[in-house]
Amino acid sequence: MQFFSCTVFFLFAAISSASAAHHRQPVTIRCSKSDTDDVADDFLQGIKKANHGGELWLKKGETYVIGKKLDLSFLDDISVRLDGEIKFTDDVEYWQANNFFYSFQNTITFWVWGGKDIKIHGSGTLNGNGQRWYNEFAGSEILDPDNTFLRPVLFLTDNATNVEVSGIHFLNSPCWNNFFVRTKNIKFDGVRFDATSNNASALPKNTDGFDSYNVDGLTVLNTEVNVGDDCFSPKPNTTNIHVENLWCNGTHGVSMGSIGQYPGVLDYISNAYIKNVTLLNGQNGARLKAWAGPNVGYGYISNITYEDIHIENTDNPIVLDQCYFDLNATTCAANPSKVNITDINFINVNGTSSGAEGKVVVDLTCSPGATCEGIHLENIDLTSPAGSPPEIVCSNINGDIGVRCTNGTDSPP
């Protein structure tokens, strides 16, 4: 058992200074004495006390262990200053049985944040304690319909308006780092995400930086993401997206989607501006992804701009994937995607692929079951270690894309 240094007093001068700086009455709670000392009840009481204009302060150098699910859906004008560490227990059996469940991709979470005017800031850490989850999930797939091992999302908002998160470090989330549901105007600034494993045969999976569902107004600024899945990936019905100054390492890219997963359901993503992004050592760079196959949905991705994007050692620097999820070509051709892709811009994209796809650095293969038009590429300077000249593939796209491309059916393997 790990024991923590837990200070039981607080400095009046520091609290007075913090209060003056933020114009909020500070609230403190006891910290944990060990990694099994659950302070979930204290945390909940602290949140209730700080609600309606106060600030819960979690102090630097102290750890607050959460071992019980928390409903925080009642918030109204609250600030949480996280300078210490919030750490969730890795009691897999408890969390499998006690969580908040969302039917979209069988998502669960430790807690739900909801309400309005919520601010979370500081220099501390939100620790998902994911190693045991990585070990026990190893080899599984979150989207496998037979998967029953559900892993919690580290931070989830539902029915929330005006949420700001800044400064903190998200560490080792068991699954997605964030999932925003029925949320309006959420902003992240200066946040860092890391998911690493000490077990080479059980690497973090599905540890996306950002996921969303029915969200209007999603802003991410000045953020670093070092995880094993999507760096940024808004999901169905997300609109008015702004991403700027984003750094991604070892990820599956900055993706729009996936959408179109559920039978008969209309999904969409619209109005996104993605600027000044660095993508290193990943599977994908700038990606649009939609489901195909029998019994899927339909929808559209529209008015998306990627601008000033730098890519290094990435398998697919720019890619349109309308055969998601790992669908074989025969099934995809027989049941093509019904997600339309319109008004998409890739401007000032430079760097190198990994060579995993040969000379292909851009693959824009549109589904024959969908409409793809208004797709524009400008100032594309991507190379491949597999040789020159680099190849841009386009297929089933209406109109000129702005650069010379080859039809995917004529492309060499």
UniProtKB/TrEMBL annotation:
Primary localization class, coarse: secreted
Biological processes, Gene Ontology terms: carbohydrate metabolic process; cell wall organization
Catalytic activity: [(1->4)-alpha-D-galacturonosyl](n) + H2O = alpha-D-galacturonate + [(1->4)-alpha-D-galacturonosyl](n-1)
Signal peptide: 1-20
Subcellular localization(s) per the UniProt record: Secreted
Annotated EC: 3.2.1.67
GO annotation, cellular component aspect: extracellular region
GO MF assignments: galacturan 1,4-alpha-galacturonidase activity; polygalacturonase activity
InterPro entries: Glyco_hydro_28, Pectin_lyas_fold, Pectin_lyase_fold/virulence
Family of the protein in this entry: Belongs to the glycosyl hydrolase 28 family.
Function statement: Specific in hydrolyzing the terminal glycosidic bond of polygalacturonic acid and oligogalacturonates.
Protein name as it appears in the record: galacturonan 1,4-alpha-galacturonidase
